[in-house]
Amino acid sequence: MPLAKFFPRLRRDPRPRSPEGARSAESGISGHAMNVAPGFRFAARSFRATGSSAACTLVALLCLAGAAPSAFAGSPSLTGHWELDEDRSDDPRKALKGLRLMRETKFEDKPESRGVGTDSHYYQQRELLEKKRVEGEVADVGPIQRVLDATRLDIEDGGTSATLRYEDGWSRSLSPTESGPVYSAKGAEYKEDALGLELSYRRDGSLYIETMLRPRGRMLEQFEVDASGRVLTVKTTIENPDWIIDARIRRVFTLDGGQ
Question: What helix, strand, coil percent values describe the chain, rounded to 5?
């Protein structure tokens, strides 16, 4: 937008101005700009002390151009080589144990033994054994196991783009949006990768990756760096309609000591 709309005195005026009038206009521009960005008041006063009012006005105008914060100013960078801290991290296999829902056989669906009626005790014992087996079984999550088992992460965070590299050489390229996810009717915001359909975004200083899994289910990952910038926490939630509850896994990584 033209500066003349903000500062009417900048519009061309054919009438000649006296030095006093020029100084008055300069003063008005400086004052308005410094009200918009008070952080430059000290610099403006310093220029005035040296008698350079034109420079003062230029500083104030430059302040207006740079007053708006960058799009990802509130999101700390995830860039670095990150190593897993096993003592502070969940074991993914323990977190995935006993999640599968076992559907019990209805009584009327059980076969009957000839001449002795329904052998209910036999089928109760069989179901009990099956329940114990399911409780100790680790859920098969397919290709996302490589994400859950990661012990090293190399991240290049460019704000509007990010690349995650895992120890087996596999990588994920992201284009996160700011201030939460952006959904459309056609689902064009999702990008297909080896895990399914992926959507990434930033919110409240964290990076989120939402993945619609194959053949079904959903995984949500949250990447968050602490105030020191040297501890990365990855919180993963996996939903599956065949599970009794969602799987929740917390993994903690620390920045490589050489960085």
Answer: 30, 25, 40
Q: Is residue 50 part of a domain?
A: yes
Cis peptide before 215 (omega within 30 of 0): yes
* Class of residue 33 by CB neighbours under 10 A (exposed 0-12, middle 13-18, buried 19+): buried
DSSP 1-60: --HHHH-GGGS---S---HHHHHHHHHHHHHHHHHH-GGGHHHHHHHHHTT-HHHHHHHH
Verify that 150 and 131 share a domain, yes or no. no
Return the top range by mean pLDDT from 108-117, 183-192, 204-213. Answer: 204-213
Residue pointed to by tokens 């999550």? 141
- Alpha carbons 173 and 200: distance in angstroms, whole number: 10
Are residues 166 and 123 part of one domain?
no
Q: How many domains does the chain have?
A: 3
**What's the CATH number where 163 sits?**
2.40.128.20
Question: Residues, the chain, total?
Answer: 259
Owning domain of residue 150: 80-96+141-255
Judgement on whether residues 11 and 33 belong to the same structural domain of the protein: yes
Structure tokens at 165: 């590299």
Other beta carbons within 10 Å of 155: 20
Same domain, 130 and 151: no
Q: Which residue has the tokens 């992926």?
A: 198
- The model's pLDDT over 210-253, given as tens digits with 9 standing for 90+, comes to 999 988 899 999 999 999 999 999 999 999 998 888 999 999 99
The one-letter code for the residue type at 41 is R
Determine the longest span between alpha carbons in the chain, in angstroms: 120
Measured between alpha carbons, how far is 197 from 191 in angstroms, rounded to an integer?
5
